[in-house]
Design brief:
By secondary structure, this protein is α/β, with parallel strands linked by helices. The chain is built from six helices and ten strands, in the order βαββαβαβαβαβαβββ. The chain folds into two domains: about 5-125, HUPs (Rossmann fold), CATH 3.40.50; about 145-220, no CATH class. It has helices spanning about 15-25, 50-60, 75-95, 105-115, 135-140, 170-175, and strands at about 5-10, 30-40, 45, 65-70, 95-100, 125, 145-150, 185-195, 205-210, 215-220. It is globular, with a radius of gyration of 17 Å.
Amino acid sequence: MSKPKLLLSWSSGKDSAWTLHVLRAQDRYDVVGLVTTVNENFSRVAMHGVREELLAAQTDAAGVPLWRVPLPHPCPNAEYEKRMRALIERATAAGVTHMAFGDLFLQDIRAYREKQLADTGIAPVFPLWGRGTMELAREMVRAGLRAKLSCVDPKHLPREFAGRTFDDSLLDELPAGIDPCGEYGEFHSFCCAGPMFRRSIAVQTGEVVERDGFVFADLVPG
């Protein structure tokens, strides 16, 4: 009997990468695509600022096709929802019945996703929901997951963290009040190694710039 087809919301960061690992361990679904929103103007992953060539290397290493959703910049919410509706129509036509997200505990975010998928025939799945974030972060590191911080919110985390490796040392040095997984948006990441990949992705930290109130580390292929 074939497994239900599932799309995974893929930010290029550690949480979505770990979600793929968990989904494969559960073996309940056929993960048929990784859904990523991409800034059309800059050819980078929306919010994370990761170059599309690194995204392509990442999804190839994961062995799952990329479902790219281009977004204008700036992108009004109405336009975002229009483009996501088009994605859902494509998914249902392809027989997709589930969509997974790497959200951890923010109830408003979960409620928004559930609302957007209501009455579409696609059910939301949250494999990491409710996990303690420090425990989860340490588990990721122990399992060999490695990521680079691609974006930092300087209102919450010093800009010096941009470009750093997500590892035990970083977790030990996080200021008080910062979620270890960055669930409040304190930082975003690019996952470059781990059990969800067939091979690691060589990446180096390039120029660090401040734009639109955030600090971005330009990650470049190694």
